[in-house]
Amino acid sequence: MTDKRRSITRRHTLGLIGGALAAPAYIRDLHAAEVTMRLSHMLPPVSPMHSQVLEPWAKEIGEKSEGRIDVQIFPAMQLGGKPPQLADQVRDGIADIAWTLVVYTPGRFPLSETGSLPFMVTTAEKTSVALHKFMEEMGMDEYKGVKPLAFHAHAPGKFHMREQAIEKAEDMKSLKIRAPNETFGKALEILGAEPVFFPVTEMAVGLANGVIDGTLLPYEVVPVFKLQELTSVHSAAAPVGRGFYSNTFNVLMNERVYEGLPDDLRAVVDDHSGVEFARRIGANFDAFEEVGRKLCEEQGNTFVEVPASEVENWRERVQPVIDDWIAMLNDKGIDGAHAVERLNALIDAEST
């Protein structure tokens, strides 16, 4: 080998060593994670929640921990069980983290579920921030044995109807409408509709066969179920007040896993949880709405806006649903009137 070739080879070798030393630690230690966490959720990997919220969040945790935490995501219940079992799976250590839908276990987390009452939502972002603050103030005892990382809501649900536009309560008379949760089902009944309860996975067949006349969901789910083809008219509340409903969710972590982390890694988790994580998830859910609405527009469907005055009229009429909820909270030893009043106040404060 000539002296010149020896010099080039030596410089190349030293360059590689120097490059490795200069590379970020999380790249050097990519395969040497100290902690591996399994995150479970109910949706397929094509869902926006998976691809645009959970995957980026897990990647950030890995980067900020310099590769010492590896969050592995298991969508579509790949760790087994059914969606209502997710909270227990976290508590029992089957999953280390889970994203769960509160109304899948009605009555079990009543303060969390208060955010799913009729007319408790403005935007997903603002409502999520209010809900997280509310839970930090009043609801953490519901989650003994787990570490809540965020509470959030989806964007306001809309009526997606096969034929009938919903603009006033009389338009719902005798229509079969899939209810998104138990309390809004009671509200629909008061307003004249016939609420129907079955899993969202069966909804598309129900619409296609005419078993139901419509459903209540955010635009976010339109692409998943091709609602733009199964329905022809969409009714939303005027954006100046409260929406019809939202369902509430949480991101939970096994408490033993959280407490067992070294202080610096626990700080990474803390920095990526809390009210700002709730805000981030809510903002994403607001953005998801545009995709679904655009598909309905491209289909040539009709859009109806329910005036704010009509929404307030509905809200007053369904007050017995809220009163029943307050009584249920009272029976559980919770000041129900204060809880509902406080969450409303926080939502109003975030939305002004």
Automatic annotation (TrEMBL):
InterPro entries: DctP_fam, TRAP_DctP_sf
Pfam families: DctP
Database matches in Gene3D superfamilies: Bacterial extracellular solute-binding protein, family 7
Keywords: Signal
Name the record gives this protein: TRAP transporter substrate-binding protein
Species in which this protein is naturally found: Chelativorans salis
Lineage of origin: Bacteria, Pseudomonadati, Pseudomonadota, Alphaproteobacteria, Hyphomicrobiales
